[in-house]
UniProtKB/TrEMBL annotation:
Entry-linked Pfam families: YtxC (PF08812)
Protein name: Sporulation protein YtxC
Alphabetical list of InterPro entries matching this protein: Spore_YtxC
Lineage: superkingdom: Bacteria
Amino acid sequence: MIEIHFDEASEAEKLFWLLNERKPADAPLFHAAYDGKKTVAVYIQGEEARALETQIIPAMTAFVREHMEDRFMLAMISDWFYFRDPEEQQQILALAHSFLDGERRDYRKGAAFAASRTALLVEAFRAFLRDELSFSFSSFAMFRLKPYMERLQHYVELAIDEYKLEQEYQTFVQTLRDCVAARKPAWPRLYLLHDPPRFLFYDSERRELSAEDVRQMIDRHLVVSQPMYIDSSVLAPLVSLAPSKIELYTDDPDDGMVQTIQNVFEERLRLHSRADFSRLFAANAGHGREC
């Protein structure tokens, strides 16, 4: 019998049900029992090595990945990094999952880890579990899951770094929004063509502006007074002019600068494709400019 003691009854109950769900009805090699409190007992009925390798360890690994992983990371976020606000914790946890699931690039590590989280868990259980064993799951996690916990800590740290960057970015965007709202629009309309990596400016009369023309538009006080760096080729002139309308033509709406311009100018901005720009200016050449 393998006897597993938990700190919380809900954890014991989850493992009990998961063990039974993973146990094949036609060839069960173990029987699981739950005392209704905090202990799960696993009675091995067949060959020990086969029962552990094919049924018990996979179920225990799934239990950690599906039911305990978030708890471990939330404990790190709260107890190690002192983020105690529940909303902040959930935001950081969501970011950690985006790294774990591969949606975000792990910029601290060039190559992938040699072993997956599942492999780390299987290795730990394989080295520890045996018949006639009684243990505390929390102690097992503390002393036997160190490589796995270090892996989670790595992604939690990445998530916290990303969270702080996003908070700084939101503060930056709000500051620029306030600047735009406080300024009287210098132009009724501005046309902006995204020609990666450049942004080309066109005035209300649809005349292209030179780089020097754009630099001349910048309010130097605006740039100097900002606590964060403000891009001098695009954002600084846009915020300085604070046009009533911005017509932005791009084929890459997910570009970082395009997203920032959208976030700052919100309802003042309209997105178009570059094909729309070509059609607009072709019509403009044929029929004369319109304001």
